[in-house]
Amino acid sequence: MSAEQTSLIFTWTFLAAVVASTGLKLWLSTRQMRHVGRHRSAVPIQFQEKIKLSSHQRAADYTLARHQFGLLAIAIEVLVLIGLTLLGGLQWLYQLTQSWFGVEGVANLSAVTQSGAAALAVNPSLWSSIGPVLVFVVLVTAITSLIDLPLDGYRQFVIEEKFGFNRMSVRAWLKDRLTGTLVAAVLGLPLLAIVVWLMKSAGQSWWLWAWAVWVVFSLSMMIIFPIWIAPLFNKFERLVEGQTRIKVESLLARCGFASNGLFVMDGSKRSSHGNAYFTGIGKKKRIVFFDTLLSRLTDDEVEAVLAHELGHFKHKHVFKRLLISFVFSFLGFAILGWIMQQAWFYQGLGMTPDLKQAQGPALILFMLVLPVFLFPFQPLASFFSRKDEFQADQFAAQTSSADNLVQALVKLYDDNASTLTPDPVYSAFYDSHPPAMVRIQKLLDLKLLDQTQQDPHAFSHS
Q1: Where would I find the beta strands (DSSP E) of 178-329?
Q2: For residues 400 and 394, what is the distance between their CA atoms, to the nearest angstrom?
Q3: Any catalytic annotation for residue 309?
Q4: pLDDT tens figures, 197-253
Q5: Does 447 score more than 70 pLDDT?
Q6: Residue 154 in contact with residue 209, Cβ under 8 Å?
Q7: In this structure, are residues 33 and 67 in contact, taking their beta carbons and an 8 Å threshold?
């Protein structure tokens, strides 16, 4: 089979995958909207004494608003993908950046560098090798980010604002985006430069070295992020002395969990959503509570929520997920190492680069195409994630209280306007956490089982 025939087959395969995944996304979203809309008028019986009808309807309306906008976002995402690939957008950008790095451009850069005007001590020969790739990748990333910017702004200042969640000003939102961009540049550009250099100089096994660099970078970020990056966006203060701290420290002692501190994050300055999470690894582990969470939950409920998070730690869910991510990234780098040498891969996606200078197109095309082909596996990832959540809930019920966790979850569902009636098919496909009714019922069953084990005669028939 000729390269032209192979590239044509790949083009149609890619198009079929795009159509199938897009159609599936639209179908699932419309199912979710119909199901939530049909159940908007009545609170599920399990929650009728705890959640008002007005709150239930607000959650339904919030879900509908997000999914209605999501349909537009899906359409834009597909148009951008096709525009960059099959309609020649990437090819045009590639030729543009190549023209910027002609002989004259490299000579000018060398002169500037040697004159001392650029204080970065850039190696001209190295820059002439990896510079075009870096600029191409950065340019494509910048364009896609700019396209997403108004979509993100609409979510924040229209949808989140309408339902009372947004607490950010436009200025603060823009500052966050600028800070995030600068952090991504400081951390991402050196990483990208190393990977590109390996692609050009490490031979056929470059991808193995690049994967090793990625692993080291990922582990380093788990240490760096909570200490230096997260404080750029939020203020973190030690949890003050008091009953909440006593409860938390007692739970940590019972579970044998050592942390590097208990912190409260000022999440309320951006949103009224509440949460709690672990961050860091090893001795650098931190426990972080949103101030919005602490303001709504009782000390017993906070303990139960933390017990759930500790359940993930005790069952080694974080370690397992990290290990799985390294396995899949290994496979991803291996596939990229092979596919970047195949002319049909580029031609089938609307590009015709010189294979010796195709590092930039290979990276961008791979990042664009991979999610399309991995989308059918989303339900599998969701299934295992929900399995972990059930395990963490069971641990919380055993070490704290099923009742307290139920009460905390109900408050969080209410405060975060989480729908209590998701479509089962949509939920099975996407949701990383079990549906509210299923999760609450499991906890109530655990409570009943525990009571039965403690007093076997309490529920026996006379």
Answers
A1: 236-238, 262-265, 276-279, 286-290
A2: 10
A3: yes
A4: 999 999 999 999 999 999 999 999 988 988 899 999 999 999 998 999 999 999 988
A5: yes
A6: no
A7: yes
pLDDT category at 419 given cuts 50, 70, 90 is very high
Within a 10 A sphere around the Cβ of 301, how many other Cβ atoms? Answer: 24
* Contact status, residue 42 vs residue 51, Cβ threshold 8 Å: no
Catalytic residue among 301, 303, 309, 389: 309
Nearest-angstrom CA–CA distance, 165 and 290? 14
Strand partners of residue 71: none
Average pLDDT of span 331-359:
94
Residue 336 has pLDDT above 80, yes or no: yes
Asked which of 65-69, 137-141, 228-232, 369-373 is least confident by mean pLDDT, the reply is 228-232
Q: pLDDT tens digit string along 166-204?
A: 999 999 999 999 999 999 999 999 999 999 999 999 999
**Residues present in the chain in total:** 462
**Phi and psi, residue 50, nearest 5°:** -120, -25
Where are any strands of DSSP class E within 233-391? 236-238, 262-265, 276-279, 286-290
Give the DSSP H/E element, type plus range, for residue 56: helix 53-84
The residues facing 264 across adjacent strands are 237, 289
**Average pLDDT across the chain, whole number:** 89
Catalytic entry in 301, 393, 415, 423: 393
Strand 286-290 and strand 262-265: pairing? parallel
Helix (H, G, I), strand (E, B) or coil at 265: strand
| pLDDT above 70 (res 136) | yes
Decide: 363 and 415 in contact? Cβ < 8 Å: no
What DSSP assignment string belongs to 87-151? TSHHHHHHHHHHHHTSHHHHHHHHHHHHHT-STT---HHHHHHHHHHHHHHHHHHHHHHHHHHHH
Q: Sheet containing 262-265: give its strands across.
A: 236-238, 262-265, 286-290, 276-279
Per-residue burial over 398-434, b = 16 or more CB atoms within 10 Å of its CB, e = otherwise: ebbbbebbbbbbbbbbbbbbbbbbbbeebbebbbebb
**Residue located via tokens 């961009």:** 181
* Strand, helix or coil for residue 263: strand
Report CA torsion sign: 135, 141, 142, 147: positive
Confidence of residue 352 (pLDDT cuts 50, 70, 90): very high
Which of 429, 431, 430 has the alpha carbon at shortest distance from 439? 431
Nearest by Cα to 76 from 144, 165, 175, 161: 144
